[in-house]
Structure formats: structure tokens, C-alpha cells
Amino acid sequence: MLSFPSLKSCLTAKPVPPNLHSSLSDSFSGSKSLSFNPQTGFNLRPKSLQIRAMEASLDYHFGTQLQTHIKTPTSLKIAIIGFGNFGQFLAKTFVSQGHTVLAHSRSDYSDTAAKLGVSFFSDPHDLCEEHPEVVMLCTSILSTKSVLKSIPFHRLRRSTLFVDVLSVKEFPRSLFLEILPEEFDILCTHPMFGPESGKNGWAGLTFMYDKVRIGNDDPIISRYGRFLDVFAREGCRMVEMSCADHDKYSAESQFITHTMGRVLERFGLESSSINTKGYETLLKLVENTAKDSFDLYCGLFMYNNNAMDQLEKLELAFQSLKRELFGNLQSLYGRQLFEEGE
Fold first, then answer.
1. What keywords are annotated for this sequence in UniProt (predicted)?
2. CA end-to-end distance (rounded Å), the chain
3. S-S: 128 plus which of 97, 155, 167, 244, CB 3.0-4.6 Å?
């Protein structure tokens, strides 16, 4: 064990002999950082630029090494408002990646949340007081406005990131810009998959996003990047696209897909022992679309300005096909009558 002289012995120590002064001065003459006075002892002199540069270099080297051993936290505190099937579906992956997940819904999902490792809050005030970094709305399209207005924004931290996952994009974009405080960030997204299509993983599935309003501060940019990384890590195909372009393309694909599935459902397709591959595809289409609520389909129509055009084009295409079929039938019937007359 190291021993140190007592304070009393230091105060009563005899003066250093003069001959020691010269030897110590010679020892420190290269650095010239110390001076000796027989009456006052050693005094610090200003250090040379070389010494100071060496020490600064050591400090920088040490700081660099220290930074390499300190990892920036990547986990997020994500609040899911609307904890139905889709909210639970996303929560499983969030939790598996080590993120803290909070949830709120009108229905009591506390037992389901506990099994998933999610903290459930029946009161949105209590959830917001947990100060989540990200608030994700997983509500239906029809209820989005009322749910958004019910959130106690004053209990959240400023610059909280708000995210939606609706199947339409222009509607939530306008709604967020209208209702959310200006200091809140906005990210509109559409995971173009669900509990059925994504049950075996998200690799190769499309995740669309639009940076509607993202601040320039480093912590804000980092948080935004970490959130997108949740989906990138799962292998999603990340597509950045404007909300307007999304709704245009979505009306041409998603809305028409849902429309044909519901038409065929009402048509009453039945399976048989001689199903073709094409017929099996139609049966699968009916099965997938029937699992979604009619509110979703209604929302795709009501809140996408392009949906009406697509519905009219579909009707015109069907009428055109009927006219062509009937025209060929009349032509064939006319030839048969003419041949019989001859």
C-alpha cells in the first residue's frame, strides 16, 4: 500500500539545500515547466508550445478512443395509438428489436399487451406523460381525425415524431399539418403488407414513406433514421415517395384489388376439385380482402381522390367488354341465320 506524508510533516519540512536547486533546475531545463525558489519552493512556469501540443494530442487521442467505446443508443420509445390487429402486428417486431413500446386503444388490450411485452395505457394522458419519442397512429381511416384531436399534445415533448400507417396518404398528411403543433415532426408511411402477407417476415415487402416535416437538428434526424431502420433491418424494400404519388398509384393497384376481391366475394366463388391455378389465385384474393373490414375499403374510396376515377374506369371497362362480347355474339348469330337462309 502506498503511504503519503502527513500534512504536518509537509509544513515543517526543512528547506531544500541550495545545491539541490541547481540539479533539479538542470533536470527540468528541457521543458522549462518548473522553477525553484529556496524560499517558496517549486513554481510552475508557462509551458512551451511543444509540451502543450503534445498534451493536446494525448487528450484528443484519449477522447477518440473513448468515443469508439461509447455506443449511441438505437432503441426508441414508441407509442402505438390504436392497438388492434395491425398495431399488435407491428408491436411484435418493435419489441423483438429491443424498442420500448407503449399502447393505447379504446378497447382494453391490457392482457394482449402484457403477453407481447408492451405497456398498455387506458388513458392517453398517462401514455403521453411517458414522453414517447415516436407516436404512431394505427387507427382506421374513418376514425383518424377524432383520435388525433383527442391526444393531449401538451403532455408530450416538443418535436415528438408523429407517424401514420394508413393506406391513403394525402388525407393524413393534410390532417397532421392542420392539427399537430408546428414543433412536432411528421412522417407519413404505408407498410404495404399486413398480418397475413407479413406473417413469415417482412423481407422484400414494400415500405413507403414521405418526410412531410422533419427538423434539421442532429437528434431529430437520428431519431427519424432509427425509426426507418426498424423496417430496413427486417429487409423491407424502402421507397421514398410523395403522398400525392402514393395515392395515385395506390388507387390503380390497392383500391382496384380490394374492389375486385369484394365483387368476387359477392359473386360467390366456390372451390372445386378441378380448380385451375388462376382460379386458386382468385379464391386467395377473395380470402385476403374479406379479412379486411369494410371500413378500410370505404376509407380507400372516400379519402383517395383518385378512387372515383378508377371505379368509373373499371365500370367503363366492364361495359366495353360486355359490348364486345354481345357484338361478337350478334355477328355469329347473324352469319348462322344467313347460312341457314341460303
1. Oxidoreductase
2. 128
3. 155
Going 167 to 173 to 178 to 183, the CA torsion angle's sign is positive
Instruction: Pull the grid cell for residue 101.
Output: 413500446
Cell for 242? Answer: 410523395
Same domain? 216 vs 263:
no
- The CA distance from 82 to 103, in Å, is 7
Q: Name the nearest CA neighbour of 255 among 244, 247, 243, 245.
A: 247
Instruction: Report d(CA 224, CA 312) in Å as an integer.
Output: 39
Q: Which tens digit of pLDDT belongs to each residue from 158-214?
A: 989 999 999 999 999 999 999 999 999 999 999 999 998 899 999 999 999 999 999
Q: At what angle do helices 243-250 and 170-179 cross, to 10 degrees?
A: 150
Report how many domains make up the chain.
2
Helix (H, G, I), strand (E, B) or coil at 198: coil
Structural domain of 291: 248-333
Strand, coil or helix: what is 83? Answer: coil
Q: pTM (2 decimals)?
A: 0.69
Take residue 322 and report the three cell numbers written for it.
Answer: 360486355
Please tell me the predicted confidence (pLDDT) of residue 327: 86
Give the pairing of strands 34-37 and 100-104: unpaired
